[in-house]
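User: Show me sequence and structure for the first protein, then do the same for the second.

Assistant: Starting with the first protein.
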Amino acid sequence: MAAIFLMGATLAACQSAGDGLDVAGAEKDKSDIERVSFEDLRGYCPTVQLREGTAYFNVYEGDETSQNVRYQAAITDVTRQCKYENGQLAMKVAVAGRVLLGPQGSSGTVKLPIRVAALTGGDEVLYSEIQPYTLEVNASGATQFIYTDSDIRVSQPDARNIVIYAGFDEGPKKAAATN
């Protein structure tokens, strides 16, 4: 019984100390609190997905064989952050991954073609950009990267039907030159 009383007194002392959250003071000063709109509270932020075949990117020295791989890049995670501003949905998409050197690889600069696209459920393209992401790789193992596209803005959706795609994409294949 004495142990329970002692524990209760200790907890009460901890709660009355000045080190904790001052609820009364928080009511007086709200200058550091960011205003949150109703739209932000709705909680709709489109998901980010990888399309089949876009999670890996290989660069070869010559023929496309495993012995000719210069480097291989892989996307390991994607995420997003959303905010409603002036009738638009502003999104920031982050793509994380790593680059491994292959048998023909060496340390230096590599360029990864990363596309981020926003589409409606009916496949209407709202946003689509390919950015060459440059990073330095070294011969001592995997090099990790995080690519961020923070320029995505679409009209405020009236339905929850937007999908964000992220992945490696070299863009349209160039036609062979004819003589």
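Switching to the second protein now.
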Amino acid sequence: MNFDFVRHYWRGRLFTRLKRLNQALAAFEAALAISPNDLRVLRSLGYLHGERGAWQTAESYLRRALALAPDAVTWFNLGYLLDQSGRREQAIAAFREAVRLDSKLDRAWYGLGLAHAALGQHQEAVAALEKAGQLQPRNPHIWYALGMAQHHAHAPDKVEAVARHLLRFHPLVCGKLIQDTGRADLRHLVRELE
């Protein structure tokens, strides 16, 4: 065990938690100099550079990690990064690879749905968000996105079903969905809207 590597790695983790990104980056870079193929360090550097909006640098670290050990979470992180940098078609490919490797990775299904929706591919968005909703039946963000995708896919009955589902555990998000879809016929579901 290389104690210098361990020291730098754990300093990087600590500084990441403390939101001291420059110090975290320096610590992880020092760890990477000692162990250039450490997956944890490559993933951490990808994450931190992504947090700073350095998309190309972040992508290069994540792709190095994927070349060493392709796993669902790293594919998800790459998809998220690509989506945030506006490269939605590439994000969709990365999210698809993530769910191929782990079909229960709800956040990858969610990201896939949002990327499709951003491209106006509402049927594909619905399919991905339905899967995310099955995995996370009480996540209001997923269900709101699903309701909006159903709305844009011209499925009013399904929007109502999503609103009724949301009403069970998050009436505020249910109200937002009703307002954002212009569904005045559903206002009676949420008292605050009446």
